[in-house]
Amino acid sequence: MKTPSSYLLLCVIVLLSLSLNAQVKQTIIPYYDMEKELFGYKDSILNMAAIPAKYQYADRFYEGRARIQQNDMWGFIAFSGKEITPIMYEDALNMKDSLAAVKLKGKWGYINRNGELVIPYTYQMATSFYEDRAAVSNGDFWGFINSKGVLGIDYMFGYDENVYPIFKEGLANVKFREKYGYINPLGQIIIPFTYDYALPFDNGLAAVEQDYGWGFINTNGKAVVAIKYDISNTFPVFNDGLCPVSVKGKHGFVNRKGEEQIPLIYDYASNFEKGKAPVRLGSQSFYIDTNGNRIDEE
Hints:
Layout: H1 4-24, E1 28-33, E2 38-43, E3 48-55, E4 57-62, E5 65-70, E6 73-77, E7 91-92, E8 99-104, E9 107-112, E10 117-123, E11 125-126, E12 134-137, E13 141-145, E14 151-158, E15 167-168, E16 171-176, E17 179-183, E18 189-195, E19 197-198, E20 206-210, E21 213-217, E22 223-231, E23 242-247, E24 250-255, E25 262-266, E26 268-269, E27 277-281, E28 284-288, E29 294-295
Antiparallel strand pairs: 1-2, 2-3, 4-5, 5-6, 7-8, 8-9, 9-10, 11-12, 12-13, 13-14, 15-16, 16-17, 17-18, 19-20, 20-21, 21-22, 22-23, 23-24, 24-25, 26-27, 27-28, 28-29
């Protein structure tokens, strides 16, 4: 027979288990109320409102915090709907590595998960933290700070509104004298500045452009996917192991080894999602699977 104390302990264990499971599987997601024309949050399992629709915009939760917007200003809330910060920021990025970049009075700084300012408002531009580094701008050039706000890599890298420098897999894509290359956290050049564009690494590969052709390189700078393709109507990224590419208006898919797994025969192709990708061949539009087989949807 269980004693009252053992029963209480069992209840505590069950509650802790439920709490941990709730943290692992996020169920509170944003939704749009058509009548109010406002955003709120709902429980995706119970399919019922969890936080009333009262926001101009509501983002997903990241690290237990979500960006919300009212009157063109930004703030952060917790799962409970409690405001972690006042809705007072001119702009804000999602929480990453327990810090979020926020803009106030024209300058960017960083707050922690409690809404406390931990890195002052001193930057003209700022990015989220990745691998304990964030790119920040003095208005002319990018440099990198660590999570303490220490400028570890000086302002020297070119600004481009289309490509932000991010540390992924130990390397950051940066621009110097109109060309892109990659540096390590010490600021040392690892892959030379030879590309017209260069994107962050993802699972060992990074998309680069050179002489109007796109391809993918590995962390040693070797071209794994030949740098000869046009981008196929979309951001150069691998989904389900395949990336859409095109040559002279014909579209297909390459795999992460650089092989043309699905021939370049289509007049249109876009990214795979959940095992299927939209394509067009002549006047016919349909989906294909990762083997290139047509999927006839009912």
